[in-house]
């Protein structure tokens, strides 16, 4: 079930989040514009923004809130509560069939959940890399993203603000590498 994939991806992110040392919040991430705290804020705010979309928020409202502070003094709790709120919103009757005003184009809730799950999975790798932790992603999630990428992102106005270009000269050695390079990551 698609909600199970989102929860699995979120659990992977939470696993690394719980390992952030007190002095690790300003460590750089593969997302060059974000340190660890900004990446965690992006994930937390993203979950909350999807709740808004499912409840009728516009793409403009989504984008206006994209970088707003969402962590407070307890980033782990803020993130886990955002996951619960996001999962609950996607689990509401009719949510997966509802059309939302996503910033890159209108989507059904089902596809919005797939985009959110993909984003959560890729950013789990970013957080693991920033912490110097094992960056192996769940193989089932990786396979699902690899097999469904084109369907998930079909018709969306993807651009460099959303996804970096695949790095030049990187040969994908594994399925995970192939997924990561699609999202502008260099798995080397």
Question: What does it look like?
Answer:
A hairpin with a 6-residue loop joins strand 1 (99-100) and strand 2. With 188 residues, this protein is mainly α. Helix 1 packs parallel to helix 5 (109-131) and helix 5 (109-131) packs across helix 6. The longest helix has 23 residues, at 109-131. It has helices spanning 2-17, 36-54, 59-65, 75-91, 109-131, 139-153, 175-182, and strands at 99-100, 107-108. 34% of the residues are buried. The chain has seven helices and two strands, in the order ααααββααα.
Whole-number radius of gyration?
16 Å
The largest sheet is: 2 strands, antiparallel
β-strand percent reads under 5%
- Low-confidence segments: none
Query: Main sheet: which strands, in order across?
Result: 1-2
Instruction: Provide the succession of SSEs.
Output: HHHHEEHHH
User: What is the arithmetic mean of pLDDT?
Assistant: 91
Structural class: mainly alpha
Termini distance? 32 Å
How many β-strands, per DSSP?
2
Helical content (DSSP H or I, runs of 4+) = 55-70%
What form results from the Cα inertia axes? Answer: globular
The tally of helices reads: 7
